[in-house]
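assembly run, all chains below
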Amino acid sequence: MQKGGPAAQWAGDAVAGTDRTRTAVTGGPAVILVVPQMGENIGTAARAMLNFGLHDLRLVAPRDGWPNPKAVAAASGADEVLAAARLCDTEEEATGDLNAVYATTARLRDMIKPVLTPAAAAEDMRARHQRGETTGILFGGERAGLSNDDAVLAHALVRVPVNPAFASLNLAQAVLLMGYEWFRAGDTTPGTVLDLGVTRPASASELHGLFDHLESELDAAGFLYPPEKRPAMVRNLRTMLLRAGLTEQDVRTLRGVVTALARGRPRRS
Amino acid sequence: MQKGGPAAQWAGDAVAGTDRTRTAVTGGPAVILVVPQMGENIGTAARAMLNFGLHDLRLVAPRDGWPNPKAVAAASGADEVLAAARLCDTEEEATGDLNAVYATTARLRDMIKPVLTPAAAAEDMRARHQRGETTGILFGGERAGLSNDDAVLAHALVRVPVNPAFASLNLAQAVLLMGYEWFRAGDTTPGTVLDLGVTRPASASELHGLFDHLESELDAAGFLYPPEKRPAMVRNLRTMLLRAGLTEQDVRTLRGVVTALARGRPRRS
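ok done. output:
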C-alpha cells in the first residue's frame, strides 16, 4: 500500500502540490460512467480519479460522443486518464472482465442486494484486489442516475451517507468520494503526526530548569503570593507548560522571555 | 447524531435525491475560506457544505467581493448557505468565536503543529462539539493555499492523503472531503445493509425443501451420477444455494424453476 504522501493543495492549478518525483499510485477499481451527459463532468471525474490513484476509466455510450474536448479542458491535467479511457457500447461490455461491480445509487431498489457505505465498499474492494480480483464502480448519468437495469448486474449497491435535506452530489463529487475511500483504505498515514523538524522534545530536566527559573523570578516579583496559594499556582503553571509539549528550543526561548521580563523596563532618565 | 438517510444522487440537479421532509442536518464546524478567488468555487463549496449538513460559511476578503452572483449560480440550490455567509476582513475576525481551528494545507510548515488526517480531524471536532465547543476549518485561496501567517493561528493542520503524483484538489473538493468526514464521524449508517423489503430470509426447512426437490429431480434426470460422486455434488449445490442468502420468495421461485425444467420441453408433434 502506498503512503499518503503530501496531501492535496487547494489550488485550482492541477500541478500545484504535485510532486512528480513521487511514485504514482496505480491499480484500484475501474470507474464506469454509464451514459454520462456533460463532458465537463467526465473531465472532473477523471481528475478526481487521478487524485486518488485511479486510472481505469470506462465510458458507456456518453451522450456527446467520445473523445470530448470539454472533458480535456475540465480534467486540469488528468489527461492520461482520459487518453486511456475505454469507450463501450453497453454496461455488459464495460464490466465483463471484472470480478465484482458496485453500483452507486441513492434510490432504494426493489432488488435485494447488499447496500454498502463507501468505506465498507472500499474495504471490500481492497480485500478483493489483495486476492487478485478486479473491481469496478458504476456511476449513473447526471440526470437520473442508474436505472434498475443498470444496477441489476452489480454485486452490491453503494450509498453515500449525506444530508437528507440536500442529497445531491454531482458526478465528479461522487467519483471523488469513492476514490478517496479507496485510497484511504490503503493509506498508512497516521491520524496525527507532530513533525518536530530539526528540534526535539524538551527533556524533563530542561523543563524542570524552566520551571525553577520561572518560579524563582515570580517569587522575587512577589507573584506567587500568599504562601498558602503558592503550591496550587505552581502546579497550574507547570501543568499549563507541560500541556504545550515544549521542544528544547521552546524551553530556551521561554527562559529568554523570563529573563527579559524579569529585567524589567529600562527606567526613563 | 443524524442517520445517514438517503445517499447522494449523482444528478447535476441539486434537488434530485433530496427529501425536504427529512430533518435537515445542522451544527458542525464553520468553513472559513481565506481570500477565495473564484465565485464559482465559493458556490460549489457551499453546495458541498450543505451536502454534509454544514451551514456556517465565512469568507475572508474574497477577491471579487461579496455577494457574488457567480457563487449563487454554482451553488445548485445551496442558497441558504450563501445567504447566511459572513463576510470578514481578517482571519482573526472570522475565527475569534471558535474554540479550535484546523488549517487545511498540503505543504509542510516550519511550525510545530499536529498534522491530522481528515478523519482524525473529524473525530477531534466531534469530541469538541459534544462538549459544547465550536470549531472551524480554514481553506486557503485557489492559487497558493494558506500562508504560514494564515495557518499560525490554527490549533492543528489537516492534510488529505492523496496521490503524490497528482495532488491537486480544488477548493470545493477539499471542502467536500472535510464535510464528508465530519458527517461520516457522526453517521450511524451500518457499513452493510441488506433490505429484504416485504419478504424475509428463507427458513432452514424451506431451504431443505428446495434441496430435496432439486436433488430428487436431478436423481431422476441422472445428473447426480456416479453414486460415489453424489455426496460431493450435493454438498456443492447446497453450498452454492446457501451462499445466495435466499429469501422465502427466492425459494418459491427456484422450486418453480426446477419444476418447469423437470417437465422438459414439450415434444414437437
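DSSP finds ten helices and eight strands in chain B.

Residues 204-262 of chain B form one domain.

not gonna interpret more than that til we talk
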